[in-house]
Design goal:
Layout: E1 6-7, E2 10-11, H1 12-16, H2 18-37, H3 40-70, H4 77-103, H5 112-138, E3 154-158, E4 166-167, E5 176-181, E6 184-191, E7 194-199, E8 213-215, E9 218-220, E10 227-229, E11 235-237, E12 246-247, E13 249-252, E14 255-258
Parallel strand pairs: 3-5
Antiparallel strand pairs: 1-2, 4-14, 5-6, 6-7, 7-12, 8-9, 9-10, 10-11, 13-14
The structure holds FE2/S2 (inorganic) cluster.
């Protein structure tokens, strides 16, 4: 799902994380070589690199938090993963700040406690990077999906169910719009049998179906491939076991309105 903190579809978070990663690794390398070569200029450089890493981490956190709360699907495995990722990064930042405070000044030679703190911080940072990779490459957070000939992925936010989501002419076969209506995330799409509306949340682990693929009248979740019939919500193929909620559609003067929820059907097709 497209990042909210981006410039021309290039998310800021992955651009900025290069600074804390690079500077904290450089800080560790400067310290180790400084001790080995008994060169105070090197461990002073390590001290300043650690400060730069802390500043970079604080800057990188801003777009990360924006995307965590506005882009990552709610009640999903990615949301939990995002909180762990952010929590570990915060812990790493605290470790490096504590290490700097412990050293006190650039000219102070780092001792084994300072080096150990850097090692622990970098190990945690590596694990957090692993989680960040999963968020991007598997959960597709920050990916800008587009439809051929239809421009950018579309999202709408409506205060209530009385407002139209779109004009019916805006949707071609297989295209979807993510509409947040009165706080609910609803996908409005055009399948081979007409315009349909269904819950955005995959019942397996909460993947965004608006990020998936609509072929015929089946939508496929992008995370683990579950497929649902968008007319009745039934599961076509798992791993999901529960149906998704579907919603009625009314078209008035070409404008598409979504009716409030029907109950999801329990029986899989
Ligand atoms: S979240 Fe696993 S298939 Fe949708």
């Amino acid at each position: 799902m497209r990042s909210r903190a981006q410039f021309r579809s290039h998310p800021f978070h992955p651009m900025l994380v290069a600074f804390p990663i690079g500077l904290w690794v450089a800080s560790f390398a400067f310290d180790v070589f400084g001790i080995w070569l008994r060169d105070s200029a090197l461990w002073s450089a390590g001290f300043y690199a650690a400060i730069g890493g802390c500043v970079g981490a604080a800057l990188a956190a801003v777009p990360g938090v924006i995307d965590l709360f506005s882009v990552v699907p709610p009640k999903s495995s990615a949301k939990a993963r995002g909180f762990i990722h952010g929590g570990i990064n915060t812990l790493v930042l605290i470790i490096f700040i504590a290490e700097l405070a412990y050293r006190g000044a650039p000219e102070t030679q780092p001792d084994h406690i300072a080096i150990l703190a850097s090692v622990v911080g970098l190990c945690l940072l590596s694990y957090s990077g692993w989680l960040g990779g999963t968020l991007v490459y598997r959960n597709q957070i920050g990916v800008d999906h587009r439809y051929a000939g239809a421009g950018i992925f579309r999202e709408r936010t409506l205060k209530d169910w009385e407002q139209p989501v779109c004009n019916s002419s805006e949707l071609a076969d297989g295209q979807m719009i993510l509409a947040t209506i009165a706080g609910k995330r609803i996908v409005v799409g055009k399948c081979s049998e007409g315009i349909v509306a269904f819950a955005d949340r995959c019942t397996h682990k909460g993947g965004s179906l608006a990020d998936g693929t609509l072929i015929g009248c089946a939508v496929q979740c992008p995370w683990h491939g579950s497929q649902f019939n968008v007319n009745n919500g039934h599961v076509i193929t798992g791993p999901a076991e529960r149906a998704i909620a579907t919603y009625g559609i009314q078209i008035k003067a070409g404008e598409v309105f979504v009716e409030p929820a029907k109950s999801p059907k329990k029986k899989a097709a």
